[in-house]
Amino acid sequence: MNNLQNKKILIGVSGSIAAYKIPELIRIFRKEGAEVKVVMTDLARLFVTPLVLQAISGYPVLENRNGMIVDNQEDCSIRHIDLGRWADLILLAPATADLLARMSIGMTNDLLTAICLAAESEKKIAIAPSMNKQMYQSKTTQKNISILKSRGMLIWGPCEGEQICGGFGLGRMIEPIQIVNLTSRLFQYDQDMKGIRIMVTAGPTQEKIDVMKFLSNYSSGKMGFAIAQASAERGAEVTLISGPVHLDTPPCVHRINVISALEMNEEVQKIIKKQDIFVGCAAVSDYRPKQFLSEEKIDSDLKNVQLTLTKNPDIIKNIGRMNSDRPYTIGFSAETRMENLISNSYIKKTNKNLDLICANNIALKNHGFHTEGNSLHLVWSKDKFEFIPYDHKIKISHQLLSKILPRYEEKSKHQNT
Ligand code: PMT
Q1: Is 315 annotated to bind ligand?
Q2: 154 and which of 74, 126, 144, 384 could share a cystine (Cβ 3.0–4.6 Å)?
Q3: Where is the active site (predicted)?
Q4: Distance CA 117, CA 108 (A)
Q5: Which protein residue's CA is at the shortest distance from atom 28 of ligand 1?
Q6: Nearest one of 196, 187, 108 to 154, comparing CA atoms
Q7: Which of ligand 1's atoms lies nearest the C-alpha of 317?
Q8: Distance 280 CA to ligand 1 centre (A)
Q9: Is the pLDDT of residue 295 over 70?
Q10: Is the pLDDT of residue 77 over 60?
Q11: Which pLDDT belongs to residue 294?
């Protein structure tokens, strides 16, 4: 389990009976080489003492007292920022229904929630819920959990078992060793994208014709989501701009949902200058109906309906044109014929001024739209390309990132000298 060597884990303990398992959790983490700091909510102190956690973690325990942040040594007004920056992972264990509710609406009424809100866009946050089964199954808690998931947080457990309040059910915190194993898996990849901000577009866009119809394509979002996931697994700060798809947000990814190409362009433009790398994997509709034809369904008896189309902005081309702050820019190219896969893709790369274009032949069986796997030709220049053979999209994405990173770093070095 060497993945945990020197990893910095910030454990947020809230007031649940499962808090008595946290000393054991810290012990295993430290045995695996991780450094652990602990923050407690007020109620957590009723279930486990700060002194025990301090002795086992080797660090002063941070807690709130009468609304003040206390670390038993000194008070510091930016403690919640520093702690989030320090951590490779913020682990809320045990996490009560109350903590989940406060987190879901972005409250910062204690040190722990303030740390989480400040760190949310940049750090991995994992949550191990622990509560009574009815509280867990309530619509409110389930909604809160889905909100936290949609913000890229990981939910580990709960599991079934005897409940302290009697009976048997789903609500127990998973065991410390399971938490350690899940954490270890989180760090199985080299964190070679730490400090890199990457934006990925994914999925189709939908262009409204009337209240019932739209123009679109078959993209499922799987390829773009896999690139976002692989980037997050390697420690990058990931923004995923997604068209309408039915996929869960990958852990630790900041997702922005859009419908149309205009909306996608708008969201990309808002923060593109802050990005180091841009990957345009979305199948953006090139055209949209010139006008929204009707607030009502178009009458199906009409003999002639004319649909006039107008060009959508070319999102990636606009990025390719940027003079300053242009991120390292990678496009995708969906083609249907092997004989002109490379040449057509190269033309797109040149026209859009990209650093790389990834060509995929969507006519091949099990490739391209909706499939779990893909293969890619990475077209670097007219006569230089590399092939990534067929594999699952997540593995393809890791291979793609490994090819991109040295070139991105080389280019940034040149730009900075
Ligand atoms: O989502 P999946 O089901 O997993 O399928 C994956 C995929 C086949 C959609 C993906 O691998 C892929 O090939 N995506 C790009 C498809 C495409 O739109 O290719 P294109 O040749 O039309 O566009 C070239 C590049 O320009 C792309 O990076 C595209 O995002 C970008 N573009 C295109 C039009 C436009 N108006 N704005 C753009 O940014």
Answers
A1: yes
A2: 126
A3: 165 (proton donor)
A4: 7
A5: 331
A6: 187
A7: 39
A8: 7
A9: no
A10: no
A11: 65
Q: Is 277 left (phi over 0), alpha (psi -120 to 50) or beta?
A: beta
User: Which of 316, 330, 341 should be mutated for ligand 1, with most atoms under 8 A from CB?
Assistant: 316
- Could you tell me the distance, in angstroms and rounded to a whole number, from the CA of residue 417 to the centre of ligand 1? 33
Name the residue among 186, 190, 280, 152 with its Cα closest to residue 227: 280
Tell whether residue 352 is among the known ligand binding residues. Answer: yes
Whether pLDDT at 14 is above 90: yes
Task: Give the three-class secondary structure for 305.
Answer: coil
Question: Does residue 76 register a pLDDT over 50?
Answer: no
Query: Residue 382 and residue 220: Cα distance in Å, rounded?
Result: 30
Q: How many CB atoms lie within 10 A of CB 48?
A: 21
* Distances from the Cα of 125 to the Cα of 121, 145, 183, angstroms: 10, 13, 11
Alpha-carbon distance of 287 to 308, in angstroms, equals 10
- 245: nearest Cα among 269, 217, 268: 217
* Domains detected in the chain: 2-189 (3.40.50.1950), 197-415 (3.40.50.10300)
pLDDT for the residue 161: 82
Residue nearest to atom 17 of ligand 1 (CA): 283
Is 26 annotated to bind a ligand? Reply is: no
Residues 6 or more apart in contact with residue 224 via CB below 8 angstroms: 200, 201, 202, 203, 240, 242, 279, 281, 282
Which ligand 1 atom sits nearest the alpha carbon of residue 360? 13
- Dihedral pair phi/psi, residue 314, rounded to 5°: -90, 100
The Cα 378–Cα 388 span in angstroms is 8
pLDDT of residue 74: 54
Residue with tokens 């884990």: 9
Q: Which residues are catalytic?
A: 165
Distance CA 282, CA 43 (A): 46
Residue 324 has pLDDT above 90, yes or no: no
Distance CA 380, CA 398 (A): 18
Burial degree of 2 (CB within 10 A; 0-12, 13-18, 19+): exposed
